[in-house]
Structures are given as C-alpha cells and as structure tokens.
From TrEMBL:
Name the UniProt record assigns to this protein: Probable glycosyl transferase
Organism of derivation: Brevibacterium yomogidense
Domain Glycosyltransferase 2-like: 8-160
Gene3D superfamilies assigned to the protein according to its UniProt record, in alphabetical order: Spore Coat Polysaccharide Biosynthesis Protein SpsA, Chain A
Any GO MF annotation of the entry: hexosyltransferase activity
Lineage: Bacteria, Bacillati, Actinomycetota, Actinomycetes, Micrococcales
Keyword Transferase in record: yes
Amino acid sequence: MTVPIDVSVVVPVYNARPFLPAFVASLRQQSLSDYGLIAVDDGSTDGSGAYLESLQEDFPQLRVIHQENSGWAGAPRNRGIEQAKGRYIFFADPDDVLGDEQALESLVRFADEHGSDVVVPKMVASGGRTYAQGRYATTQVDADLPTVFTTLTPQKLFRRSLLVDHTVRFPEGKVRLEDGIFLSRAYLLASRVSILVDRVYYVLVHHDEGDHLSKRAIDPEAYLQSVSTMVENVDALCRDRDTANRIIAELVQRKATLGTQPKKAVNARPKRLRAWFAPQREFVERHLQAADRRSALRDEARILMDAAMDDDAEGLKEWASAYTAQYSAVDIRMVRGTLHIRGDQSSSARGATVELVERNGTTAPSTISIDVTDDNWELAIPKGQLSRPRDVRLFDVYMLVETTRGTVRRRVAADLSEPSYTFTDGRTVTVYTTVRGNLSIRVSEGLGRIARLRRRARRMLRRKR
C-alpha cells in the first residue's frame, strides 16, 4: 500500500523554459520535504520538457508527464489531478514562484488543523502586475464565500478527496474562465473554505514575453457562456439564497460586464460594445430576472446591464466618460468667509454639482453648484454650509455629473498641503488630502454663543478706548 505524501504540486507547462529555473528553485527550497511536483508538459516546443527531464536525477520529487498540446491549461491540470498522490493538491503556474520556504508546510499544517477542504493563500503580484489585496485583510477559518469568489485563479490548496469524490475537473479545450468554472464547484462542494494571510504564499510574476492566454481576443458570446456556467453552479450548489445572490452579484460585477466596464467602454467603438450587449441580454434574461437577485447587484453593474438591455452604446459611452474622469482640486483660497476650491478635470463636467457629505454624520448631504469650463471647475462654500460643530466634523467632497444613463458620483481627488483657515467664530477649517488621495474638509469646534458674545464685548471696549 502506497503511503500518500502531503501535497502534490501540479503545474501545466507550455513553452515556459525561461521561467522554469526560478519556479523550480522556489519549490526546492521548501521546508516541507513530503511533496511531489507533477509537471505536465503540454507539447512544448522550446525545450521545457527536456529541461525538466534533466532535473529528475537529483530532484526525486519531480515527475514529468508529456502530452500533445491541448491549447489550454485545463487538460494538463486534469492529468495532474489523475496522477496526484498527495493528500492535498496545489496548482501552480511555471512562470510564477512560491512565496517563502515555509509556504507549503504552513498551508498543509493549517488545512490539517482546521479540516479545510480549500485554503485560499495570500498572493501578491510582481513585475508591474497588480492583484487586489482586500480579500486578504484577515485569516478566516470559515471564509465568507462571496469574498473567496473574488479570487478565481487556481493557485489554492485543495484536499484531493474533494476533487476526486465529486469529480471536480477543469473544462478542457479552449474554454474561457475554466479556472472559475472549476472553482465555482470546488468552493461550494467543500465542507470548509479558509483564507490564510499570515505570510505571502505565492507570487504572480508578470512577463511581457510569452503567449499569455490573457492577451488573446475574447469572444463575448463564449465568455458569457462560461459566466453562465459559473452562475448555474452557484444556483445548483449554494443552499443559502442570500449568499448565492451575493456571489452572483460579484460574478456580474467582475465577469459578466467585462467588455463594457467603464475603462473599456469609454474608448470602445459602439460596434464592439454591441457585440457584448447581445450575450449580456441573454445572460440577464436567464439569470437576473428575480427581484432579490437584481437588488443584490452594485449600481455600476445594473447600469451596465441596463445599457445592454436598451442597446444603448452611445449612452453607455457618455456615462463611462463621466465615470472614468478625474476631478482634482489644485488651489484653495478663503475670501471673506467663503472657501473657494478650484480644480482640474479630465472630462467636461458641465451641469455638474458638488456634494458635501459629512463622514459618519447625521446631517443630510448638501449640494452646491459649481462654475465649469472645459478643463476647470470652481466651488465656493459659504461658511454657513460648514455647520458649527460641538466637536470635529469631517466632510468628503463628491462630484455629481448627470448623464442619460444616470448620475455619476465620484470622489474629488487632491494633492495638497494642509491650508488652514480660521473663521471669525473660532472655527478652524482645514482642507486636506486623505491617505487615498481624496479631498476632505475638517471643521473643528468653534466658540459657543456666550463665548462669542464675550469676545464681541471685549472688542467693543477696546474700540472705545
């Protein structure tokens, strides 16, 4: 009887020869010795397979499997699942690296301790690549499922019995979002999904060279079909309706609207947007008819899907232009008790207004008209609109721009020192830049009524003298 090893690392390899030394080195330095590396050479033509073969003599954990090119990563990963002997399987890519020498050992120890079927490890990006870190705020033994659905790359630790017993496999062939289809089943079939963030476990490395799948043109119809498959998996396997709605809202926001998201729509030709609209309409009709499901969507996703339903490419481009525009404060002045803020804009905001919103406050937001030219705007805030506080009050500043597809609400940015002005009632007004680069106003406690009367009396006495 063969005693299983702790973890099988499965890596599909296709023309990755320049990157393999760094990847292999990150594995060979692991403190966990009880692991195996299954490298599935998917018909490489650059010597990747021969290089891996040359390592086997002094790298006993390595097994190399050769197969004809399948054109995508799903088939070689499935081959790796079939050949894996580990109690756990970890999927990696040959152009990335593991975090530190304790990565595998720490993942296995955590999964054993908590009985996790899937462990989502903290990952970072390098080489100019970005990867959102909000999902890694804290370690979660029982992770919030909508949060784990924000990471649909396969670099996770899976209990092998989960994949084997439920026949969880990657779609084979050229299927977009094959990782997401795989994970949408694995996450929801698992008895426990965890997030582990005590160290960096995996580094996604950006490379300009190479034939990356992400660089290939996307067929909107095929892409939306893959998103539909993921939604169907959620509907079939998620037993809590509210959780299912939150997961699907995340999939709509990140995947179903991919081709019409603001940064793409603003420069896209109407013909290209309409190529996305047709499958998006079918997606809405299939999956987003229920009121509770639609209400779970973010405002941005609803606007994008409504534009698709209306076939409104021009209206979407107008909305996207306002949504992606940058509004930045560049000059602050105080003139006779009125605070003047002048700013630049990357897109005309004619007809716009500014909204002052008290942070954590109970007062209703106040809306102020602004003067707008093609490239600049100016806001005047009378001191009466900055209500006298009993303590410190903070106001955030938003630009409101009306479009045919609704009102766009964006934070006003700033890169300022902290000019401070004192009103005659003792209030100190400070206009400053937040840590996220946004414009905010701090108003400190002023003088009370009796104190103001006493000060006025002292001034009158001085004048009489």
